[in-house]
Structure formats: C-alpha cells, structure tokens
Design a protein that fits this description.
- This protein is α/β, with parallel strands linked by helices and about 450 residues long.
- It contains twelve helices and 25 strands.
- It has helices spanning about 10-20, 45-50, 65, 135-145, 160-170, 190-200, 250-255, 300-315, 345-350, 400-410, 415-420, 435-455, and strands spanning about 1-5, 25-30, 70-75, 75-85, 90-95, 100-105, 105-110, 115, 130, 150-155, 175-180, 205-210, 215-220, 220-230, 235, 240, 245, 280, 285-290, 295, 330-335, 335-340, 355-365, 375-380, 390-395.
- The strands form seven sheets. The protein has a five-stranded parallel β-sheet. The chain has a five-stranded parallel β-sheet with strand order 9-16-10-11-12.
- A hairpin with a 6-residue loop joins strand 19 (about 285-290) and strand 20.
- Helix 1 packs parallel to helix 8.
Length: about 450
C-alpha cells in the first residue's frame, strides 16, 4: 500500500513515522515544498535572539534520516492538486520546475498554516517580515546584520508578537507593539493579561492598543514608517506582521474535501476527512474542544504532533482516536512565563456555563527557601457543580507546573473539591507545603459553598 503525506513539519513527519512503525511494509512518500523538514517552528524566535546559537539545532531530522526507515522524503516538491476519484496527486519539482502525476492508496494532508498578511500599501517593502517557517528565519538572518535595525514594530500582541518583543530587546532594538484589540492576549482574562502588559512596559516596550495597521511607508524600497488606522506614525527599520495564521486548505477545498465551520479541514476523531482514505492532521484541520464539545481550531505544535500520530496509525490500518483539546498553551516573554488551559472566564460564559473564579498569589517553593519566586494563578469553575473549567498562570517560576496540573484536572473532569485534596509532591525547594493550586482550589471551593448557601 502506498501512503503519501503532504507536508513535512510537525504533523506530516510524525504521521509518516507512525505509519511506518505500525506497518513497515507500506510504501510511504512525503512531499515538502520547503528545503527543510521536521523542524521546530516554536524555536525560531530563540534562534533570532541568539539564545540558540546554532540554527540547525531546531531541525530534528533530515530526509536521509527518514530514508533509513524506508520513508521517502522529497523536499522542494509542491503538490498542486488532489484527484480523489483517481487517487492521484499532481506534483511539481521546484528544483527543476517539472510536473508529474503520482498515485496513492491513502493520503494524509498536513499542509499546516500560514501567516495572515494584510493587503495594504507597502507590505512588500524590505524589512517587512513574518515568522512562521525556516524560510522566514532565513530572511531574518539575512536582514539583521545588513540593516542593523534600531526600531522595530510588531503588528499583533499574541504569543509570537510577545516572544519577539523579548527577542528584539535582546538585540537592543527599541520595540513598539500595535494591537487592534483593546488589550493584549485576548484569549486571557483582562486582569491576567494586564500583568503581562505591565511587564512589557517595565522592559521599555511601547504598546499601542485599539489601533490597527493602515499603511507601510518606505524609502528606496525599505521600510521607514508604520501608519496606523488612527493616524499615528511610528518609525521602523523592521516590521513583523504577527496578527495570526490561517489554515492552508486550498488543496483540500479544490478536491471537494469538507471544511468545518472554523475554516479548517473537517475531520472525525480518527483524523479522517469526508473522503474515504484521506486523512488530515495538524494546523490545517480542526478539532473538538473537550470542555464545550464545539469545533475548534488550535494551530499549536504539540497538538499537530498528537494528531499526526493518530492519523499515521489509522492510515496504516490502526484504530486510534484523537479526543480533542483543552487549549493548553504556554510562552515566555522577558522574565514572565504565561500559560493557560481550558476556558477563560469570558469564554466559559459565552459557552453557556455559569463561571466563578478566583485569583491567588503563589510561589514555586517554601517561603523560607532561597530563590523563591511568585506567580499569579486564576482558576475558573462551573457554579453548578464545581467542575474546573480553566486556569491561567503568569509569573517568574512554577507556572508550567500549575498549568500542567490544571490540564490534568480537566482531563479527569475534577471539581475544585477534588483538586483541593490532590496528593501532590512537596519539598521546600520545589513547593510550599500546600501547592498553590491546592490553596487556590480550596479558596474557590469555599467561594462556591458560600454562594450556594446564600443562593
């Protein structure tokens, strides 16, 4: 059986490797239009800042590594079309610009996502960049030592934008963030996002909120100014467009493969599309929010790998299922770690829950132990039954631990009462005697009890 995978970053390479492990007798072919496969896009900001000195470190495997397992990887090959009736692909070799037809028995679409780039004046000026893939990294690496930018403008205050703010600070580039929404990090609740906002200001990042990008001005083909919708003019030697990404679904759409209401490819729990023998995984397809049951699109690297593993097993004859996501995410900006899982208070309300929440202050070790660092922790629960709905944590240390505990509690459908009695590890160098998440769950459980008593 011939299995073909379109796309070779996270979901694509994971699915190819899994399919081979399930049945090594299958012929597996992977087409990737970039010059590299199997790289970590999440590591790119740290290559730019110099934290990762060798950019090759973010490349996990080469085509020859896959070849040792019998997986044929063709880089610089672009799939132009899918004929699901004939079970054929039209492919272009970008190295010699020749086209050919190849047949498949089963297909995995892992075409990922690409940055949203607005169609505005000046968008093609030198110094206007995105950061999504290895090609984008190469543009950064070529531009920085030649332009020597002193002022950067980041359009968008999501995860990538805030990571790059730190990156540019490390490179001594004065940075301005322009965000059309009224606050940064719209997926977080306002009081938590405000903590990050203040931290950015402390690190000399200028923030313009409630204003969008209108126009880019340049001189001799190079960016010089950013003009906002409200008429502000911001000097810039470098502009990064970080307003979000959209799924690469054109191939699927042209092949009459169903898209979901998120705009990404619709799949079931086996990662199967509406076309028999055709699967999809990663940033190009949607999934299910495990709390609300609604369809969701969450283009994150860990989710892509998990979906790729399921698609790879099933395409080779297995019976794996991907149950959906909680939306767990984490990133770092300057000294702050910022993380969340599950629903925010606002999204819980919009999803029909009656949310109740509490914000507490915790620390990563006993109060008397040297080096203690603090963080803010927010828990959200359903007033009806006390079930945990989400958590957000922001601070210097221990944030990842709190969010991973909360994500596991969501997995087990735990209530605040359950979490209050969790048996978690304690030793002064690692935690207070009662974990901050236990303390927060106890406080929220008491709040719930009082509301029910008075209600």
């Amino acid at each position: 059986m011939r299995i073909i995978v379109i796309g070779g970053v996270a979901a694509g390479t994971k699915s190819a490797a899994k399919a081979h492990r399930v049945d090594p007798n299958n012929e597996i072919i992977l087409y990737q239009d970039e010059s590299e496969v199997s790289y970590s896009a999440c590591g790119l900001p740290y290559v730019i800042s110099g934290v990762i000195a060798d950019e090759r470190k973010v490349i996990i495997r080469q085509p020859e590594d896959f070849a040792k397992d019998g997986i044929q990887v063709f880089i610089r090959h672009r799939v132009l079309g899918i004929d699901t009736g004939k079970q054929q692909l039209s492919v272009r070799n970008l190295q010699d610009n020749t086209d050919f037809i190849v047949s498949y028995d089963r297909l995995i679409i892992a075409t990922g996502a690409r940055p949203i780039v607005p169609s505005i004046e000046g968008i093609t000026l030198e110094g206007v960049l995105t950061l999504r893939n290895i090609t984008d990294l190469a543009r950064f690496k070529a531009l920085l030592p030649t332009v020597l930018p002193e002022k950067a403008v980041i359009i968008g205050a999501g995860y990538i934008g805030l990571e790059l703010a730190e990156t540019f600070h490390e490179l001594n580039i004065k940075t301005t963030i322009i965000e059309k929404a009224p606050r940064i990090l719209p997926k977080f609740d306002p009081e938590m996002a405000q903590l990050v906002h203040e931290h950015l200001l402390e690190n000399q990042v200028e923030i313009i909120l409630g204003d969008g990008l209108a126009k880019l001005d340049g001189n001799n083909g190079r960016i010089t100014f950013v003009e906002t919708e409200c008429g502000k003019t911001v000097p810039a030697d470098l502009v990064v467009i970080a307003i979000g990404v959209k799924p690469n679904v054109e191939l699927a759409k042209e092949a009459n493969i169903d898209l979901g209401n998120t705009g990404a490819i619709a799949v079931d729990s086996k990662m199967a599309t509406n076309i028999p023998g055709v699967y999809a995984a990663g940033d190009c397809c949607e999934t299910i929010n495990r709390i609300t049951g609604a369809t969701a699109w969450m283009p994150l690297g860990d989710i892509a790998n998990l979906q790729g593993r399921v698609a790879g097993e099933n395409v080779a004859g297995g019976n794996a299922h991907f149950p959906g996501v909680f939306g767990t995410a984490i990133f770092k900006t300057f000294k702050l770690t910022v993380a969340m899982t599950g629903l925010s208070e606002q999204s819980a309300l919009e999803s029909g829950f009656d949310p109740i929440s509490i914000v507490t202050e915790g620390s990563d070790r006993a109060r008397y132990y040297p080096g203690r660092q603090g963080f803010s922790l927010k828990l959200i629960a359903d007033l009806k039954n006390g079930r945990l709905l989400g958590a957000q944590a922001i601070g210097l240390e221990g944030v990842d631990k709190m969010i991973d505990i909360a994500a596991t509690a969501l997995l087990g459908n735990l209530t605040c009462s359950d979490l209050e009695n969790a048996d978690l590890a304690y030793s002064p160098p690692f935690s207070p005697v009662l974990s901050p998440i236990i303390v927060a769950a106890g406080a929220l459980n008491s709040k719930l009890s009082k509301l029910r008593l008075n209600g």
